[in-house]
Amino acid sequence: MNRYPLWKYAIIVIALLVGAIYALPNLFGEAPAVQVSAAKATVRVDTGTVTRVEQALSAASIAPSALSLEGSSVRARFEDTDTQLKARDAIDRALNTDPTDPSHVVALNLVPRTPNWLSALHARPMYLGLDLRGGVHFMLQVDMKAALERRADVLATDLRNALREKNIRHGGIVRNGQTIDVRVRDQAARNAVFDLVQAQFTELVLAETTEGGDTRITATIRPEAARAVQDQALKQNITTLHNRINELGVAEPVIQQQGADRIVVQLPGVQDTAKAKDILGRTATLQVRLVDESAEGLAAERGIGAVPFGSERYLERGGRAVIVKREVLLTGENLTDAQAGFDGQTQEPAVHLTLDGKGSRIFRDVTRENVGKRMAIILFEKGKGEVVTAPVIRAEIGGGRVQISGAMTTTEASDTALLLRAGSLAAPMEIIEERTIGPSLGAENIAKGFNSVTWGFLVVALFMCAYYMMFGLFSAIALGFNVLLLVAVLSMLQATLTLPGMAAMALALGMAIDANVLINERVREELRRGSTPQAAINAGYDRAWGTILDSNVTSLIAGVALLLFGSGPVRGFAVVHCLGIVTSMFSAVFFSRGLVNFWYGRQKKLKAISVGTVWRPEGDATPAKAD
After folding, report:
1. Are residues 238 and 255 in contact, defined by beta-carbon separation less than 8 angstroms?
2. How far apart are the C-alpha atoms of 104 and 36, rounded to whole Å?
């Protein structure tokens, strides 16, 4: 009756082992570290960078506790913050020989101390939120007016080109803020402009006024189109911020929209606030220019002559010079998409670009007139330009679809596509709020949260043991298993634990023990009715299950609602709350019954069970078989 089959005990043992392994990394804490990543699109971080970092530390007589290449960054771990600061200065001097034009980002960070054998099992600690780990919080204001003016500027250029192609005469096109004014002198031209705009520029709405003998047509971006432009600008800025923050190696950064024109950025674990602001405020723009392939240009490229008048010298990946003409043919504003792929004929890695209407026309004309010549794509960051690629134009390219191919790997093609797609901001941003939470305050919050969970667990466990005796001990063990399982699940999901999350963890203890209280009281009730101890245990668990399920499902519904409609700290609370409900149902029912069955189920002639004092109603002479 009260015996588990072997496979159920196997599940309990496996859950216990998995929970212990994946919860264990949270005990090792974090170590001060220095992270090195690329500050420019053309700089690569590889094993050579690891060697340079190692040499720089050795020259400064600094021994890191660990040094490794992780993804696209190098991380050096140290035992204390004093050594960390000295190492940062030494590495910065070695890698960034020109302080005005740094090639690498050398940032302070915190990394887990997880042993290698746990890391090999993909056991990692939970991410800690800003309030627990310390870090920086930024509120960024997106200049939506500039985004709309930029869009109006693009539409004005496209409209001017479309009128020229249709041979529609006009008295000039002028952009005034977010509106476009077109002057025409006769009714035929007026009708032609209206027909063209309604056919090709559906996001514009027209109005007309008469001034003297001319008609002024005012084109304004429709409200729904303006909202789409603003939404797209916000999304592109968020994407760009994600790409930039990857350079800092921040675990679980929070980058989310707040309101119609603001972005919240939270960087847990970042200690170098100035470096974070520098990366967030970076401006990156793209330009397409022709390579100067004159005799003077080629001589300057080889370093045996001066740069010709009307040209400029830039470096490409690998440090080779490229002489390009000053005239800018296209900018990143003309690019709508960039994806990595392969050349359809040679199957070499390539980058496929999609241009807007204006860019398509310009690119078609440029490629038709410059077949066999090179075209350079230059990325500008902080006023410094570097050549991303300089392919040879093989034939005229029309239709707005462009392919860049050549001597590049699939990784380089992917990186180039990423830079071209999200290398610049769609609209300017300004930091309007900045907060820094120090690691000491985060450590204090962790200590307080840990103490609240620990004391809550101990008080509940002591009460259960005093009130329910042996069954109370089973409940306390199940409660400990619940905490272990909850921490393990949060670690496996790599969820972010915040201070509200720790509050939810403390609350989960009280909610989890409620199920055991229901079971224990049901067992007592069955004993009062005269049931044998084995029958009372079986009936107690079976009949309490319905009530436990109902109460937990209703709590889970509330938690899911918080998860769906909440944000920020509310979501952090909801995640732990929902997971705590699921783990508590497993531990309070399945696990605790396994303990009871293991302890009492083997006894065939069980006379009594230790479930605390059983009070009987007055006049009830039924003996209670309990200690």
Report:
1. yes
2. 7
